[in-house]
Amino acid sequence: MSADGMLLAQAPDGVPIITRGDDLAALLVPVLERLSWPDGSTGLAEGDVVVVASKIVAKAEGRLVAARDDAERESVIAGETVRVVAERERPDGTTLRIVENKLGLVMAAAGVDASDVPPGTALLLPEDPDASARRLRRGLLARTGVRPGVLITDTAGRPWRRGVVDMAIGAAGVQVVTDMRGSRDAYGRELQITVIAVADEIAAAAELVKGKVSGRPVAVVRGMGHVVTLEDGDGAASLIRPAVEDMFRHGVSQD
């Protein structure tokens, strides 16, 4: 939770259309400087977390590929797939595949996205989201003098739960988990297994103000300064559960 029990989140208007080769920090700083907070301050402050949709990061990094028909799109997905976890035939004859992609993320269609891109194309995830977050953090620091935490996020479904949520796939300067093990609850019992995915919770909170079709791919979350670190840290890759700990590594769909 927030250190003082309060979170503020804003998703500013005015983020331009991002294309290959764009300097994200240079484009985002003028937008972020227009933020206005209830205490009268503006722009970024130390302890803020800048939350960025992976889509604009991937566009800036030139991750757009050809996908002119279903067969070509399936080939793109196969190229990003390391392991098929589960699959199901849809009523229209296509197949939904839940797979592990090259980043180690388990996602539908390997995270390949055909929305909000030119016809006949698809967008891959950033090649190294943690490295992307570190670059963006350095760029923001150089231009503003502020060292915020940075999260790069994408949307995924969850086993046994309807709907999708945003999660952190890249992180820099954010303590991505809070390990509560060893602390005690209100009755004095020692917590044994509670490790909170703080980066994912911030990502999900930011998505409430960003939205999928609002044209606001960036949000700033204020109130989580206690998890913003001077060093970039281990990144969001450390959130991926190792295979040896994965109790649900393979799924079987039965209609």
From TrEMBL:
Residues 15-223 form the Coenzyme F420:L-glutamate ligase-like domain. Keywords: GTP-binding, Ligase, Magnesium, Manganese, Metal-binding, Nucleotide-binding, Potassium. It holds the Pfam family F420_ligase. Coiled coil: none annotated. The keyword Hydrolase does not apply. InterPro entries: F420-0_g-glutamyl_ligase, F420-0_gamma-glut_ligase-dom. Gene3D superfamilies: CofE-like. The keyword Transcription regulation does not apply. SUPFAM superfamilies: CofE-like. This is Coenzyme F420:L-glutamate ligase-like domain-containing protein.
